[in-house]
Amino acid sequence: MKTTGGSDAAKRNAGESAAEAVEDGTVVGLGTGSTAAHAIRAIGRKVDAGLDVRGVPTSFQSRQLARDVGIPLADLDSVAAIDLAIDGADQFAGPHLVKGGGAAHAREKVVDAAANRFVVVADPSKAAERLTHPVPVEVLPAARTAVAGDVRVLGGDPDLREAEGKDGPVVTDNGNLVLDCAFGEIRSPGELADDLSTIPGVVEHGLFVGMADEIHVGTDDGVDVERL
Ligand code: 5RP
What we know:
alpha/beta, Rossmann fold, Alpha-Beta Plaits, 6 helices, about 30% helix, binds ribulose-5-phosphate
């Protein structure tokens, strides 16, 4: 599994804190990444103890882990609503996020946006005053060169994400490619998000603008909860 940023203890404290918010009889969106994985394991322990919950995974990774720890699963189109989604972030500035370090941001955005409450789990290395992290952009394979050109027109520097443990590029769970697009400091996340969304061939980008309701920032000793 890909890991980023701070200590495993900090990620575990964030994930376990968010899992405490999962209530009996609810549907929960299961995010992707090393921090969200701690939340999924903690929810699995609650299921073992009798909690009635259904999980909607955001990736192959979160589906597999949820199955391993015994969380009953549902598809997004088979549930009436998602009560709570718990997901990680590569960077956060207030309620704005950059996501997609695990190339799962397309499904993550669908699930996180559908949730009545979206809780972000992170370690302190993800906090920023302004977003500066390169924005992952999932693209149709045939459109990658054209999209890269359009990203340059917007002032970005696109870089095709290469796989580790496989020759060639990362291929997403949806069969697409990822361009990591550096824009320096992102002064207007909403504007950039809109511009990226209008590029033909873009499946989804990793700017989650104003989406977070709560951020649980784990430290080695505990957790700070910020309500937005
Ligand atoms: C996957 C994501 C992850 O949530 C993000 O990369 C954070 O991962 P981690 O908790 O391992 O640092 O957006 O697409």
